[in-house]
Amino acid sequence: MAERDGDGSMTRRNKVVADFDAAVAGIPDGATIAFGGFAQPGVPFNLIAALGRQGAKRLTCIANTTGGAHKPRMPDIGMLVENGQVAKVVCSFTAATRASDMLPFTPYYERGEVEAEIVPQGTLAERLRAAGAGIPAFYTPTAVGTELAEGRETRVINGREVLLEYALPVDVALLRAHQADEAGNLRFRRSQRNFAPLMAMAAKTVIVEVEEPILPAGAIDPDDVHTPGILVQRLVAIPPPPHGIWPVRREVPAR
Amino acid sequence: MAERDGDGSMTRRNKVVADFDAAVAGIPDGATIAFGGFAQPGVPFNLIAALGRQGAKRLTCIANTTGGAHKPRMPDIGMLVENGQVAKVVCSFTAATRASDMLPFTPYYERGEVEAEIVPQGTLAERLRAAGAGIPAFYTPTAVGTELAEGRETRVINGREVLLEYALPVDVALLRAHQADEAGNLRFRRSQRNFAPLMAMAAKTVIVEVEEPILPAGAIDPDDVHTPGILVQRLVAIPPPPHGIWPVRREVPAR
Amino acid sequence: MSWTRMQMAERLAREFEDGWIVNLGVGMPTLIADVPLGDREVVFHSENGVIGYGPVTPPGQEDLHLVNAGGQNVTLLPGAAIVHHADSFALIRGGRMDVTVMGAYEAAANGDFANWKVKGAKGGGIGGAMDLAASAKRVFLMLEHRTRDGSPRLLPRCTLPITARGVVTLVATDLGLFAPTGEGFAVRDLAPGVTLDEVRAATACPVTE
Amino acid sequence: MSWTRMQMAERLAREFEDGWIVNLGVGMPTLIADVPLGDREVVFHSENGVIGYGPVTPPGQEDLHLVNAGGQNVTLLPGAAIVHHADSFALIRGGRMDVTVMGAYEAAANGDFANWKVKGAKGGGIGGAMDLAASAKRVFLMLEHRTRDGSPRLLPRCTLPITARGVVTLVATDLGLFAPTGEGFAVRDLAPGVTLDEVRAATACPVTE
């Protein structure tokens, strides 16, 4: 990819790219990619679809879930798995929350064709933040005493056993935001925010599909920015449906 | 103090108190108090003055600086030191940045009447956040190889030596915000934000002086909240000068 | 006559105190957001960074940008705030949740519980459960007293991989409300018409009054 | 004829590349925000969470809610953003600063430097210096080549407590621009009329061309 690590500037450098295919161009085989989203809000549907067309292989995919248990199905990591692009996922769910649901990802995992690392959701968020914050490791009470902590380093601090967790760095973050300005400053709407600011911190390259037309630099009040533009490299405005993919009412209203 | 740890509710419980003296009522001797502010923006001048009147003793004071090297002098931790209220400070400065300036705090420190722990500013911010985030300790590259790391625990992660730092919990945070609603949601203006959101996370009780009239719950868009109201217990609106203390142009325009 | 799920939700909600911050997990616990609380006001927190949400939106009025932990489109109450995931779990890990209410497969007399992995599965679904279980002030569980084939879910020790050790405060089932005692479960309430003997027959460890 | 402080600032600013994120420390480095950069655009970051600030405000037009690291009231450029202190230092520790420019008491041939504690003092002033020094991609220093009593500030090893080990990229003084080599300093530029011999006489370790 063209950008240096952490490359960015305020206004003159044009961060807006023409379309989703241009946005994901150059993502190499073997990349570690973080995908925003919790349930539907914040999932970069259009960028996921473009990554499927782009075809990068042996990807490590980081997200809350691999998706796919809902109707209608939207572009998700499960599709990249089905497409043979994924070597490993790092998620807080590797199975659906209802035993009766089957994630598209799960059979690939059970056959050993895709690796998975299951991480508690708060630990996942904190590990992403740590990567972005230059904190190589931290201790947490989460998962102590569980199967996830077996064989791993713990210590007692203030009388409580805590588990050592490492930062989770990311090559590319694919995000969906509500608003952006040309400097790359982002705003998310409601629970669309979820993991996005943390993935932007953790990633070398941040690519964002944006729901509203890209604003001129300065149109977002500096106090109202959720993710500062210096973390963001590529922006693409989402066209109206059917050219752009937008959230739809789910037929099954539970995650 | 009346509040339980982390006590809070959305709207019905009235968080607005009548004046600054009511706001600091009940802060006990021996409390650990964090003070917002970086240079002038965000310093809770009125609450500091009220804490001086209130008289709590043997305080541990956490802030970026103890203040007092500037003209005109504004209420600061140095005044609480002069008032005999302070046992210890935790700051990123225990001396002025110019050798020619003398902080009011410094002679007390040099005579051994007040203890001090000097902490790099980013580590201070991160230790406060960690306390609020239930992270008891973390590793950082900051201060490795310096006098501050002598005799302390380090380890090598990814080829780099990093230092173990512990969370810094707080009993009471005294903050200044620009806007607040009755649910305690806060907004800060420009660089007034600085340490405030982290101190609010780290503290059991958060007391805030507010520059604009307290808004009804719901007047701040949920996407625009900087510190969620569930972290905030007491709000007091700052009256216009001379009854309220407001920032003034400094005679010496450097920190 | 055993409790319906809604009655289980109502019974647990009676335990809430005014001013509590309440986290509701996926599934049955989401019913609690619809229970009237009278004079008591609690703030509902959802792991995805929503603080102060209200009932599920009626069909056709959904805000597709806003879901609770279960993926349901919900409303925001005046005074609500949105934070990102790390701040949301900072509130959880930082001990700000007065209670978390979760579904579970098993609850044990020693306070352990299991809700993320079923027997024989290679993977599972943790979500925020381990973070919530480790750090909320209280852990309330909602589950059917027995599995579909009649096996007890209240056990001396969990047989499934646990979510956290020794954290369960209260367990609501279709038969009643119970608290783990270390050796067994103490009855806090029984569904109307349910007898202690019935509960004992359906439970794999001692049940005391 | 040695460089003025403004000339030192201008010389260091010539090293900036288009697109860099630049952190300016208290004191002399703040002069750099006023240096014209021509075609190059850099973003100034201040440790207190200000991203994208511009020149110091003229007297009477100050925004008292907005200061840079030196406590000066500054302006914001279009595209600026404000973050809190932990996020600001996340950017620093996370390696997002292409360069940090700081004042210093001493710079050493081995890349150490000292800028937080003077001789004999009990305390000091660290501010964000240790975080910036440990994690910025480049560390530029601005200091007078000698102390007021004529002692050299460019040394084989620091005599004062150091801020970070082995991190210094470039040192601008009134005499020129230098890079530590391990054994001494290499001249990158000299102030007009300043000779290599003058620099050597004012420096406590080898100076090479």
Salient structural properties:
heterotetramer, A: 255 residues, three-stranded antiparallel beta sheet, 6 helices, 22% strand, globular, C: 209 residues, alpha/beta, Glutaconate Coenzyme A-transferase, 4 helices, transferase (chains C, D), CoA_transf_AS (chains C, D), 3-oxoacid CoA-transferase subunit B (chains C, D), NagB/RpiA_transferase-like (chains C, D)
- What's the number of helices of chain A? 6
What's the CATH class label of chain C? Alpha Beta
Using a beta-carbon cutoff below 8 angstroms, give the protein chain pair with the largest interface and the number of residues from each chain.
Answer: A-C, 55 and 51 residues
CATH architecture classification name of the domain at 27-118 and 169-237 in chain A: 3-Layer(aba) Sandwich
GO molecular function, one term (chains C, D): CoA-transferase activity
Keywords (chains C, D): Transferase
Family (chains C, D): Belongs to the 3-oxoacid CoA-transferase subunit B family.
Protein name (chains C, D): 3-oxoacid CoA-transferase subunit B
Written account of the structure:
The complex is a heterotetramer, with two copies of chain A (255 residues) and two copies of chain C (209 residues). By secondary structure, chain A is an alpha/beta fold. Chain A has helices at 20-23, 45-54, 77-82, 105-110, 121-133, 196-202, and strands at 32-35, 59-62, 86-91, 115-118, 137-140, 154-157, 160-166, 170-177, 179-180, 186-187, 203-210, 234-237. Chain A has a domain at 27-118 and 169-237: Glutaconate Coenzyme A-transferase, CATH 3.40.1080. Chain A is 18% helix and 22% strand. In chain A, the strands form three sheets. A seven-stranded parallel β-sheet of chain A has the order 4-3-2-1-8-11-12, with helices on both faces. Chain A has a three-stranded antiparallel β-sheet with strand order 5-7-6. Chain C has 209 residues and is of the alpha/beta class. Chain C has one domain (5-208): 3-Layer(aba) Sandwich (Glutaconate Coenzyme A-transferase). Chain C is globular and about 45 Å long.
